[in-house]
Write a structure and sequence with these properties.
This protein is of the alpha/beta class and 196 residues long. Helix content is 48%, strand content 18%. It is built from nine helices and five strands, in the order ααβαβαβαααααββ. It has a five-stranded mixed beta sheet. The chain starts with a helix and ends with a strand.
Length: 196
C-alpha cells in the first residue's frame, strides 16, 4: 500500500516551526474554539478559507462543498450552521464562492455528469431564475455572473434558514455576507451583506 509519509514529514516540520515561533500556540489552540466567523465555501482546493483572509487556525469555522451550496435538504450544512450559531455564537456567516468554479461551469453544461447532477441542479435553478441576467453574455462572463448569482442565492438560503431566523428573533448579533474570490489575483469582492 502506498503511504503518504511525505505529508507526515511536512506536518512535523510545520508543527516544529509553529512551536519555535510561538511555544504556546498549540496549547492555546487546544484550550478552546471561539471563532467569530463561519465560512461556507467551495471545496475547490485553490480556495482555502484561512489563508485567503490571512487568519491562523482557530479563527474561522469552515464548511465546504461543491459550489458553496446551501439548501434546506442538506442536513450536513444546516448542522454546521446550527452548531456555529447556537453553540459557537459566531457573529458572521460568510458564503464565499469563486470565479471559475467547476461546479458552476458543470451546471451550465448540457450533458450527464452522474450523481453530482443532483447537487448541480440547485445551481441550474439559479441560472434559470436569473436567465435574463445571463442572456447574451459571452461564456466567461456568463460563468462569472452565475458564480456571483449563486453566492447571492445561497446567502438568501442562509438568511431564510430556520436557525438564522430563530437567532435573529432572539436578538442574537449575526451578520450574513456574500463574497466571491478571484483566483487569478487573490482578491475578494463583497457582493452583499445582511443583518436581520
Amino acid at each position: 500500500m502506498k503511504t503518504l509519509e511525505h505529508f507526515f514529514e511536512r506536518n512535523r516540520k510545520w508543527a516544529k516551526a509553529i512551536t519555535e515561533r510561538d511555544p504556546g500556540f498549540f496549547a492555546g489552540l487546544a484550550a478552546q474554539q471561539k471563532p467569530e466567523y463561519l465560512w461556507i465555501g467551495c471545496s475547490d482546493s485553490r480556495v482555502p478559507a484561512n489563508q485567503i483572509v490571512d487568519l491562523p487556525p482557530g479563527e474561522i469555522f469552515v464548511h465546504r462543498n461543491i459550489a458553496n451550496v446551501v439548501v434546506h435538504s442538506d442536513l450536513n450544512c444546516l448542522s454546521v450552521i446550527q452548531f456555529a450559531v447556537e453553540v459557537l455564537k459566531v457573529k458572521h456567516i460568510i458564503v464565499c464562492g469563486h470565479y471559475g468554479c467547476g461546479g458552476v461551469m458543470a451546471s451550465m453544461e448540457n450533458h450527464d455528469h452522474g450523481l453530482i447532477d443532483n447537487w448541480l441542479c440547485h445551481i441550474s435553478d439559479v441560472g434559470r431564475k436569473h436567465a435574463d441576467k445571463l442572456e447574451g453574455l459571452g461564456e466567461k462572463e456568463k460563468t462569472d455572473v452565475l458564480c456571483e448569482l449563486n453566492v447571492i442565492e445561497q446567502v438568501n438560503n442562509v438568511r431564510n434558514a430556520s436557525i438564522v431566523q430563530k437567532a435573529w428573533s432572539q436578538g442574537q448579533e449575526l451578520y450574513i455576507h456574500g463574497w466571491i474570490y478571484n483566483i487569478e489575483n487573490g482578491l475578494l469582492k463583497d457582493l452583499c451583506s445582511f443583518d436581520t
